[in-house]
Design goal:
The structure holds two protein chains of two kinds. By secondary structure, chain A is an alpha+beta fold. Chain A has helices at about 10-15, 45-50, 55-65, 70, 105-110, 140-145, 155-170, 175-200, 205-210; strands spanning about 1-10, 20-25, 30-35, 120-125. The two termini of chain A are about 40 Å apart. The chains are: A alpha+beta, B mainly alpha.
Chain lengths: ~210, ~40
């Protein structure tokens, strides 16, 4: 689940009565989507705002030999792309402080026209969300396990160690703790398999339907 | 991997648990049934 920001210029409130905001998508492109009052912005007509007319507009543009808005904006037009004085940037990142504050990079501020007093809205966008990336790499794990470097082991030592581990596992009595952990893991796996089986078979009679 | 770290390199159990915990949150690797592994580590 990810988030993207939409920034409302201070002029939105003060100087102009334009009803659009700038959205930063995950590719770094900027799109301006109108939020309300489709008649408030001169560069838009009510018919072009209507999503039902988008296909017709694109078809007419194709037949007339013109490029569509989707092509001009790099494939991100849904009929509501404002391509005015908007530039793109490669990537920018901000670090969250302990107080939960971030700084908007200067490049982003300049290209979005953000000034002190600008209001930044946060909206949830599941479709644009990136999967959470793990925090650790193999090198970090190695550094934690062997801070002074891993001692060199020969192949014979490795095989002897594995033999000891197998013998130890075979001869070890089943303790109460290990049996509980094994039982808990087995029950969990069984429950997951049963849920998956029921989910794949919607016609499978359940206990409530068989009564 | 845990077998090797335990029997060959004789690492303490606390470090083994740390290694498994970091593997669960690895950048490129995905463990099968991670919730089961996490339950066993805890």
């Amino acid at each position: 689940m990810g988030y993207y920001t939409s920034a409302l210029s201070p002029f939105y409130y003060e100087k102009y009565d334009r009803a659009y905001s700038l959205d930063i998508d995950r590719l770094g492109l900027v799109r301006a989507a109108r939020r309300s009052d489709p008649h408030g912005c001169r560069s838009w007509s009510p018919s072009s705002w209507d999503p039902r007319n988008q296909f017709r507009h694109a078809l007419c543009a194709r037949m007339a030999g013109r490029s569509t808005m989707t092509e001009r904006t790099g494939g991100f037009a849904r009929g509501s792309i404002y391509h005015g004085n908007i530039a793109t940037w490669r990537s920018a990142s901000s670090k969250l402080t302990a107080q939960g504050q971030i700084s908007v990079p200067a490049e982003v501020r300049r290209k979005l026209g953000l000034a002190p007093g600008s209001v930044i809205e946060w909206e949830e966008d599941v479709a644009c969300g990136r999967p959470p990336r793990g925090a650790h790499s193999s090198e970090e794990i190695h550094a934690v396990l062997f801070p002074d470097g891993a001692p060199r082991k020969s192949l014979g030592e490795l095989k002897a160690g594995l033999r000891r581990a197998v013998a130890k596992a075979a001869c070890a009595p089943l303790t109460l703790t290990s049996s509980f952990a094994f039982l808990r893991a087995t029950i969990h796996r069984t429950n997951c398999a049963a849920e998956a089986f029921v989910a794949k078979a919607p016609g499978f009679p359940t206990s409530s339907s068989s009564r | 991997m845990i077998w090797v770290l335990d029997s060959v390199f004789a690492l303490p159990h606390k470090q083994l648990a740390t290694a498994v915990d970091m593997l669960l949150n690895h950048r490129n690797l995905v463990l099968q049934d991670p919730e089961v592994v996490a339950a066993l580590v805890r």
